Amino acid sequence: LPESFKLNTGASIPAIGLGTWQAKPGEVGRAVLHALKVGYRHLDCALIYQNENEVGDAIRQSGVPREDIFITSKVWNTYQANVAECLEQTLKSLQTDYLDLYLIHWPVRLVPNESSALFPVNKDGTRAVDRSWNQQDTWRQMEEVCKSGKVKAIGVSNWSIPYLEHLEKTWKIIPAVNQVELHPYNPQHKLKKWCKEKGILLQAYCPLGSTSSPLLGDPDIGALAEKYKVSPATVLISYQVNRGCIVLPKSVTPARIEQNLTAIPIGAEDMAVLESMAANGKQQRVNTPLWGHDLGFDDWYNA
Ligand code: A2P
Q: Going by CA atoms, what residue is nearest to atom 18 of ligand 1?
């Protein structure tokens, strides 16, 4: 089983990275420090997680050289017209002068207003989405920060095929990855195929089904866990690596952090079971976008 994958830039990316979303302040630093101690060399961050300062402190405390760690971060929606400004904040928080990978967090621009700098709403309570904003303009800025060398590779997150097709019309640099929710209840086969044809790798967020996961208690996944003598979480992490996807499990629990760094080979028949669970009726997303289904997100459920 590969321990790393190759991006379309030629750079290598560890197959398993630690997710840092929803890790509370105070917890995330400890989790990152432990992860680096037990061998993780890949961290998935974002400005909107509002904990990059602590992640940066933990990286420095770990003593692991910067160049040995693959670090990803993401432009937040309210910064889509100011990508370079968002990047500067992240670099400062993480205490580094470059990122290995920088992603557009969602294909949505939110306009900051007096209601909030990060989650602005309109007077009627709806999200302050800029519907006239063209994502191609955000991508152009991503290409610029990539050329500046402050970011070694660029990609997107939460992009469905229609959005990618729109971007494709003007991209000069092909995204290196698309980071999306992936697990057996939401395998996104069509998106995976589309991206593979363009040389875009998928990164799996919420690979375990997030908090109060329906997947960890699924009898079919439990049966595979018993067969391979591993935990259901290890089955879910291994599933992604076996299908060629980068996987970003999150945990703040030391023993789980250690466990989640292991992926095992899964036989073709068992992979077929995991790959067809959604087609057989177990279809569920655990992270529902906040920006409204009128933006073309509906097709995610049937991918
Ligand atoms: P905790 O952080 O308390 O350890 P996902 O990566 O799909 O978003 O899932 C994250 C959730 O799964 C968190 O609630 C995390 O709990 C839990 N989790 C992480 N690793 C494991 C594991 N090996 N076994 C069971 N639950 C896990």
A: 251
